[in-house]
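Data card: per-record layout.
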Amino acid sequence: MKRLRHIAIEGPIGAGKSTLASLLAPPLGAELLLERPHENPFLKSFYTDGPRYAFQTQLFFLFQRVELTRTLAQPGMFAPLVVSDFTLEKDRLFARLTLSDEEYRLYSTIHDQVAPRLPPPDLVIWLDGSMVVLRDRLRRRGRAMERRIEGEYLRAVADAYGEFFDARADLPLLVVDIDRFDPLRKPSDLQVLIERIASFEGPRESLLSPPTMGA
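The structure for this 215-residue chain is written out next.
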């Protein structure tokens, strides 16, 4: 694990990013870096009326993520391992999905001025799964405002992640099929993941199948 400084966990809404990050950080002796969506005063309104509140919602998340990731912009010789439940790049992904063309142009101007230049994560864990499992996990965590998330939007987010990772072949990526991975219900799954992280050679591997170079 000494070769890793930043492990980022990514995936669509409901995939279990924060849960996995919180479970993974302690056994790795890592610092935990979590998003705080509950602090976004526009998020509830966004799920009710997306076009009206998307820009405010996105800007709040942008500034929050920039603040959270400042420490990653200045790596130190003895910097601890950080496990995060997001990458800063997800901000553009969601912005492109939710903003109009005019709003996205303005957002991009702001983004380019405030976003720090970050080294890429040493490993990205992509939680990918079926819509059935994503919807079930959203239901299980029981957040009232997420009941308004439409299946079409959830599918669009999941597809956007797939397109993003297809385009970013430079990222070291470990793909985890959440249809068969649930460390909350099966603690042994977490140990399997830790072992795969330790043996990761990349550039792209899958947790539940033999490593495939460039797959």
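Known properties of this structure: The first helix runs from residue 17 to 28. The two ends are 23 Å apart (CA to CA).

See the next section for split statistics.
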